[in-house]
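Lesson 9: reading folded outputs for more than one chain in a single document. The general rule is that every protein is listed as its sequence immediately followed by its structure tokens, and records are never interleaved. Here is the first one.
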Amino acid sequence: MKARGKSLGLEAAYQVLQNSSIRHAALVEKMYEPARLFTGPWLCRTYVAESERTRRLTAEARIPRDRLEIIVQAIRHLLKHELFRRLLSAEGLAAMPKILGQRIDTEQPAQTLCPSPEPKPLIGGILPEVLDLLQDWYVPPQVFASLRRMLPDRQLKAARLMIALNRANFHYAQLLSTLTPASQLTDPSRPKRKFAGVTAEQLAAMEIEFDALNDEFLHCAGLCGMWALELMAARSYLDRLMENARVVRYLAQNFPEQLARLQTILDIPMGREAALARPKGSGRRRKHLVF
């Protein structure tokens, strides 16, 4: 390792890195939210805008699940008829992807739960996992001041939201901090900030609704890739069915409605599912955390 043009030994290099880490922790401890208070109109405008954006992105994340459910319901209905099952066997189409078969049998695919890691000591009031998540992002220092007001679990949720929504900025962090229930703040006895034109009841309702929206978004965003991969497998099987003349003829004569629904899915370009399975661009990023 080199520092200012000089080569450093292993111990010296380690000391430089350690000092850097200590300096960053010290900077976090000195961060405070700006004294300027946000107004009631700002809170309402930002709340409405971010809520609508979260709803829209949640709906986009649900798209592969909804398309997959159309395929599952249609094939489940068809498999209730013995003639269709016999036709699939005769044409060598009885075997389908395991994941599709599980959904048709109303079984939910097994999900592996990662064990919860042991809690680590906070760095200047910030959870180390939060710093790890945000280390590749341009993060204004005031963001950490807002995060520090929250309990560790809430900090982690806020960081995940900022990354998933591409909202690693102070205004969004301030909104999350403002709409955090008192029970999830480091100092629950601290009086809630009052906003002109916003009653305590309205603020409490905004907290509940915003939390529910964010929970649903994180759930869908976390499963969107898996749903997209399942949809790709289901579509591959559906392609095989629709390429078989006997199957298509049977469906057209006996189940035209189901055939139309399945054809609607096939009319959507396959590349869209592949795009949903890949993580989207993460916006502006950098190699080191900005303090």
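And here is the second record, again sequence then tokens.
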Amino acid sequence: MAPAIFGQGKNAPTVEELVSKNIEAKGGADALRALQSLRLTGKLLVNQGQIELAYVQMKKRPGEVRTEGTLQGMTQIEAYDGKEGWKISPFQGRKDPEKMSADDVKSLMEDAEIDGPLVDWKAKGSVVDYLGTEDVDGTPAYKVKVVRKNGDVSYVYLDPDHFLEIRILTQRTKHGAYEEVETDLGDYEKAAGVFVATSIESGRKGAPDKQRVIIDKVEANEPVDDKIFHFPTASK
């Protein structure tokens, strides 16, 4: 029988307890605060793994992110500097930087979170509720609902033994259409005292072809030039 804590009865954990366990599992509040930047290097697998791109993602507090995918000398870039997002899409024939819409930036804002959606949720203006447990590929995961300030809803599934995120299901309206994006996280490795997922599989819920990121190298607190996150300006 599953422990009583796996229900929604009197022994069910509170949101505060789960968030505290999540922070502790990641390495603790002090280690998280000390982690100011992350550089993740690896490969991006798309088209059911048939196409492999070199992958680099850089994150920097308080909320900047840049993701690059390179294939055959062409590099796709998506970046967010905390205020606006932009992209370069050479695989769609567009080699000049383009500003991204507010809807398109939502996913980048979430990618920029070094700590994940639960840490400092009150300061972020989110509303968080514990919804009990739900099966995630055979694991009775703790299910936590996060309603973000921008209206996006993320269901965060925590491993019952380690209290790290194993799945995040995000629901949002994008260009007038409803979408659900499911991200599975695993193979956590420690960098500067903080556990970071090195296997990330993401795509529309129910879609057979999800993209997979496999991280080979995690670098913490390396110097990062803020310029890489900002929309490129033409050199004089």
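What the second record shows: Residues 15-26 form the longest helix (12 residues).
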